[in-house]
TrEMBL record:
Chain coiled-coil ranges: none
Domain Butirosin biosynthesis protein H N-terminal: 13-144
Source organism phylogeny: Bacteria, Pseudomonadati, Bacteroidota, Chitinophagia, Chitinophagales
Record protein name field: BtrH N-terminal domain-containing protein
InterPro entries documented for this protein: BtrH_N, DUF4872
One family name in Pfam for this protein: BtrH_N
Domain DUF4872 per the UniProt entry, residue ranges: 156-329
Length: 334
């Protein structure tokens, strides 16, 4: 295991950022976009019957933890993962590991992290960060979405690690037991791309992938009539939040995946991937345009008269563009 100081690098997204920072600590240099792509993080799902804070759930990435599991499997990294029945056991286990100089990834709720500005704190229980030591009673934190390292008091850390709600973190922590010094990325890139194309194009349930975007488009068009103006604004606001705040990096991770395709194009000498990267960036711009206009609707500033029907049409355009793009990506010979 490494004895070098933990190097903090700010990233766009917590899970892929922790992968990049933690693996880099042990000499396995992998960028955040590469981690996101190998882990097939790109996704879409809209689950109207799964309410998060009373609002239908929308996700632009694969479920929490899946990126980490896939990257570890594809790169040959062995991880120790633990959950706990009580805060006391969880904190004792954390102390025992960091005393050995081993940085530890923990799952937390954003709501209880005091170093987040109040406006950014809400009940999201799948936020990843790294605890890499202690200073007095306080824990040293490398949170990949922050620009620098910080600290957290033990009481707040306990609250964040044992927050109630879905999903419950249950004190989850993880750290590497074995990290290979060198890996070939060719096969992991191919497997990640194949898996992403499958989830975007071939899941038979119409709530997921490009079919899920079309499904959401149909619901957005009818929000005011179906749920009333007040709920329509709440529902629309959550779609934007998941896209632009939880979908960190903007455009629901589309820019992040485009960066992965560009990096993969250089590594594998595949010009087709570079073209697809540029095209996905343009799709990300359409998502951004949707978020901008939807935000104006939420704030009643739609002076240009953008309607829910027009927002729905923007989502349909996103689904058409993404279906074409992922079909092209699935046919690239790697």
């Amino acid at each position: 295991m490494s004895t070098t100081p933990f190097k903090h690098v700010q990233t766009a997204h917590c899970e892929s950022g922790v992968i990049s920072n933690m693996f880099g600590h042990y000499g396995l240099q992998i960028s955040e976009p590469m981690a996101f792509g190998i882990g097939a993080g790109i996704f879409f799902g809209h689950l109207p019957f799964v309410k998060v804070n009373g609002v239908p759930g929308t996700t632009y990435r694969i479920w929490p933890g899946a990126i980490f599991q896939r990257v570890c499997k594809r790169l040959g990294v062995k991880m120790e993962l633990q959950k706990f029945s009580s805060p006391q056991k969880a904190m004792t286990a954390l102390d025992n590991v960091i005393e050995k100089g081993i940085p530890v990834g923990v799952l937390s709720s954003v709501y209880y992290l005091p170093y987040f500005p109040p406006s950014y704190r809400f009940h999201f229980n799948a936020h990843n960060l790294v605890i890499y030591g202690k200073e007095g009673e306080n824990y040293l934190v490398s949170d990949p979405v922050m620009d620098t390292v910080t600290q957290i008091d033990p009481e707040s850390l306990i609250q964040a690690r044992f927050a109630k709600g879905f999903p419950e973190p249950k004190g989850k922590m993880y750290y590497p037991l074995h990290v290979p010094e060198k890996v070939s990325l060719h096969k992991p890139i191919k497997e990640g791309i194949d898996q992403a194309c499958h989830f975007m194009l071939k899941v038979p349930i119409p709530l997921f992938g490009v079919k899920g975007i079309r499904f959401l488009a149909g619901r957005v068009k009818n929000y005011p009539e179906k749920v009333g103006d007040r709920k329509a604004v709440l529902y629309l606001g959550n779609i934007i939040r998941m896209q632009e705040e939880i979908g960190t990096g903007g455009a629901g991770f589309r820019f992040l995946y485009a960066a992965f395709l560009q990096e993969a194009a250089m590594l594998l000498q595949k010009e087709e991937l570079s073209v697809l990267s540029q095209d996905l960036t343009k799709v990300g711009d359409i998502w951004r345009n949707f978020a901008f206009h939807a935000g104006r609707v939420c704030k009643s500033r739609a002076a240009d008269g953008v309607s829910y029907k027009e927002l729905s049409e923007m989502l349909v355009q996103c689904s058409v563009e993404e279906e074409q793009l992922f079909r092209r990506l699935s046919k690239v010979k790697l």
